[in-house]
Design brief:
With about 150 residues, this protein is mainly beta. The protein contains 1 helix and 8 strands, in the order E-E-E-H-E-E-E-E-E. The strands form 2 sheets. A 4-stranded antiparallel sheet has the order 1-8-3-6, with no helix packed on it. Strands 2-7-4-5 form a 4-stranded antiparallel sheet, with no helix packed on it.
């Protein structure tokens, strides 16, 4: 059964923030499957990327580090997920992949998540915006498997 589906955009102004999306899990749900993707993965404007990298090196590393901006190319957008179950942390998928599938249930959970009963109620999937160099589109689809 479809529990939640959302398509949206994250902008560079949301860089280094969290985007909280709330959904309700119905009673009798045994397992959740989360399919998540975002694009673009790579920031294609090399001139803008070089400027961004120069500013970041100066801000975060200063003169103590002799990094060259081109050492960090290509710039990659990175938006990961974490999950809360009725206010309790259920884990995170801080992975580089721009397409992901995760499952959570009583006896199994994808790496990074806590297995256990799927409680009905208000859950949150949180987009952790580590790097958003350009406008990024995302889609999250959460389906549930009912108890038999």
């Amino acid at each position: 059964m479809l529990i939640f589906e959302k398509t949206g955009k994250v902008t560079p102004e949301q860089d280094k923030t969290n985007v909280v999306l709330t959904f309700n899990v119905p009673n009798g749900t045994e397992k959740l499957m989360i399919d998540y993707e975002y694009s673009p993965k790579l920031f294609g404007d090399e001139t803008a990327a070089m400027k961004m990298l120069e500013e970041s090196i100066e801000k975060y590393l200063g003169d103590a580090y002799s990094a060259m901006p081109q050492d960090f190319l290509p710039v990659k957008n990175l938006i990961t997920l974490s999950l809360d179950d009725n206010g309790n942390y259920r884990g995170a998928a801080h992975r580089q992949a721009d397409r992901q599938h995760h499952e959570i249930g009583r006896d199994f959970a994808s790496a990074g998540f806590v297995k256990g009963e799927i409680h009905s109620g208000e859950w949150q999937v949180v987009l952790n915006v580590h790097c958003c160099a350009c406008e990024v589109s995302y889609t999250i689809k959460i389906t549930g498997e009912e108890k038999r």
